[in-house]
Write a structure and sequence with these properties.
single chain, alpha/beta, Rossmann fold, 2 domains, binds 6-O-phosphono-beta-D-fructofuranose
Length: about 425
């Protein structure tokens, strides 16, 4: 019986394991169609190295508990496969590994880079005559995949950021009279301001925090920004600022590049929060605090969005169904049918329409002054953070699962990457 391989890729999310859980549980419901579910250790790197995990050793309870466990249970990776011509040896090796373990279904759970990898693997498999159903499975907190209403993982990061913005703002408000006037929260989202926009949900009426959101889509104008901070402090006594890590200056450069790049050539970002805070202090002398949400926002499963969790599970189950239905080079995506109540359908979209594309925040989601969100953005975002899905707690802490991750015996000579 053919086997299925599942792999995780790119930055992980609070709910990527919920997708994994749904994939494995769905396959277990089809013992007559699929033999084993293998998981790759650290994404495509694990496939190249033939480091596969046999999920048969995990109990149904452990697989169910994966759905409330953050991180990437099998390890993720950032590894760029170049074109089929440039990286021929790697592609040949991938197919060799799939053949050696009779893998006919490959589910790659990632963002737009991973969609590109999945597409290329489906092409090389066809060229080399290995029957393979290659399905991309969406996830990314950045929410920047084309074709889908939302990316699994985004709703939870959005909820964490909106909740934190509301809570921290109450703290600053209490201190503002004689201490801190400005609070800066730096959030992720390299090229797109979806996460920054989500912070806007924290406020309901004029004057509510956040008072300023800095989006990657809006060129940073220092003078206008500093004037807006002063205005907020004078009118409300304090100012909450959300800064996307991807904010760029008029020269098109990121305000805060850490100076390193990952395998895809993406610049490592981080540090725009303290940089902005310091500019405020230099100009106005206000006392400030700043926070970089960083991995806290990506792993905050304790405050995950129930809507996001449900979607994350549904795309996992749908990916298995698509594979069994004989589909190839597609990704299950979310099509919004209505805002309130939030209704959607999960449908296949071609990987070619998703690979390497980036969906930015539309202009009509950004307020005219460039520092906030519009009613249209709120209508889009609100349903995505709806509902809670608390993990079980033991001794005051979330009870997360660690899988056995038992290795499959390699059948091929070693291959280093
Ligand atoms: O996957 C997207 C993302 O979470 C971005 O928002 C962030 O810039 C990046 O990953 C960080 O990547 P890494 O964990 O590899 O440093």
């Amino acid at each position: 019986m053919p086997n299925l391989l599942y792999a995780q890729s790119g930055g992980v999310t609070a709910t990527i394991n919920a997708t994994a859980s749904a994939v494995i549980a769905s396959v277990r419901r089809h013992p007559d169609r699929i033999g084993r579910v293998y998981a790759a250790r650290n994404g495509i790197i694990g496939v190249l190295r033939e480091r596969l995990i046999d999920t048969r050793h995990e109990s149904d309870e452990a697989i169910a508990a994966l759905a409330h466990t953050p991180g990437g249970a099998f390890g993720s990776c950032r590894f760029k496969l170049k074109s089929l011509e440039q990286d021929r040896a790697h592609y040949q090796r991938l197919i060799d590994v799939l053949r050696a373990h009779d893998i006919r279904y490959f589910l790659y759970n990632g963002g737009n880079d991973s969609a590109d990898t999945s597409l290329k693997i489906s092409q090389i498999a066809a060229q080399l005559g290995h029957e393979l159903h290659c399905i991309g499975v969406p996830k990314t907190i950045d929410n920047d995949l084309a074709e889908t209403d939302v990316c699994p993982g985004f709703g939870s990061v959005a909820k964490y950021v909106a909740v934190s913005t509301r809570e921290a703002s109450l703290d600053v408000l209490s201190m503002a009279e004689s201490s801190t006037r400005v609070f800066v929260l730096e959030v992720m989202g390299r090229h797109a301001g979806w996460i920054a926009a989500a912070a806007g949900l924290a406020g309901r009426k004029d004057g509510d925090p956040p008072h300023i959101i800095l989006f990657p889509e809006v060129v940073f104008d220092e003078a206008r920004f500093l004037a807006a901070v002063k205005d907020a402090v004078e009118r409300h006594g304090y100012c909450t600022i959300i800064a996307s890590e991807g904010v760029r200056g008029p020269d098109g450069k990121f305000l805060a590049e850490a100076g390193t790049r990952d395998a895809f050539g993406h610049v490592q970002l981080g540090g725009v929060g303290p940089l902005i805070a310091d500019k405020v202090r230099a100009a106005h002398g206000y006392k400030y605090h700043w926070a970089v949400a960083d991995y806290l926002q990506r792993s905050a499963r304790h405050i995950a969005s129930r809507t996001d969790l449900t979607i994350s599970r549904k795309v996992g189950a749908a990916a298995v169904e698509l594979a069994l239905a004989g589909q190839n080079a597609v990704m299950p995506v979310v099509r919004r049918l209505s805002d309130r109540p939030y209704r959607y359908a999960i449908e296949p979209a071609p990987l070619s329409a998703i690979a390497n594309r980036e969906r930015k925040l539309p202009a009509n989601y950004i307020r005219a002054d460039g520092f906030g969100i519009t009613a249209a953005a709120r209508r889009y975002l609100e349903p995505l953070i709806a509902g809670e899905a608390y993990p079980p707690y033991v001794d005051g802490l979330p009870d997360y699962v660690r899988l056995k991750n038992r290795a499959v015996k390699p059948r091929l000579p070693a291959y280093e990457v």
